[in-house]
Amino acid sequence: MKPWTASIAVVAALVLASTACGTEAPRGGGAGGDGLTIGLLLPETETSRYETFDRPLIEQAVKNRCEKCVVRYANAENDVQIQHRQMNAMLTQGVDVLILDPVQEVYLRSLITEAAELDVPVVSYDRMAEGPIAGYVSFDADAIGVLQGEGLLEGLGGRADGAHVVRVEGPLWNPDHVAVSMLERAGAHISRTYVTLGWTPENAYAVMVGAIANLGPDKIDAVWAANDALAAGAVSALKGARIDPLPPVAGQDADLSAVQRIISGEQYMTIYKPYRLQADAAVDMALALARGESLRSIATGTISTDTAQNVPSVKLAPALVTVDNVEETVVRDGMYTIDEICTPKYRPACEKAGLTD
To answer: At 325, is the secondary structure helix, strand, or coil?
Structure first.
């Protein structure tokens, strides 16, 4: 048993969600006098998590906490200029607080400064945004890197010493020095890092085809992919090159298709991030800030950047998922049911893995 931790529209439509709030008067009276308007800005739809988990979980958390609150939603489709316009529109139309997952950390700095001047707090969600943010909620990035490194070493087993690891990264990639050092101490090394233009399997497939051509199929002992969409493209390229057995592939986000690849042996591991906990913490922060309340009982620490000091923060723990602990992580936490994972195509693999109803 492995260790585990339990617990997106070029022009976006405005989504109204009825939501369990007291009778406190809002900062801006954005929802008709006794409710709050929460702006939600998410970065893209290429990664399935934002529409599948983050948006609905945040909307539900608001609904549970604030009966008369309104969620105003927009997705930037991975375009920084679109997100700039979306945020500017929300500030112009009037919101009481913003939950922001930036496409790029730097690009909205001036608008975040403007929001602070308008007394509209900004909760930076998942990615750290530059500027005077009022709160930050994310998962521990260092821990994610460490778990990916551990998973790759576990997948390599006795073949770690001298192993060639190909890294497939998306935009705004993090070098993850801690995880790289871990691999190097075990004798493995990153033979090449490829940075894709977007978070799609097609992009990852293209760079992985290039890696196989450049390095040779016998010089790819493991693949470290930044997320599960990129892992899917890498696996497709490896299978297309008829590499058998497949090298261990590490992903992130615990997409349903990734869990199924893990069950079937095509992907070695992924990183599970309990999105409900992240959504709940972000909504708790946003509502408290909009009401002018302290974040002391919500934040678990503080974080400082070049543009904000001692920002109340919540950093959540990720978990490593392999074929051995699917049931104890994503199933037990209610992320997926066994029926959702074990479709007819994957039923034999599920039975072999002991994953049954």
So the answer is: coil
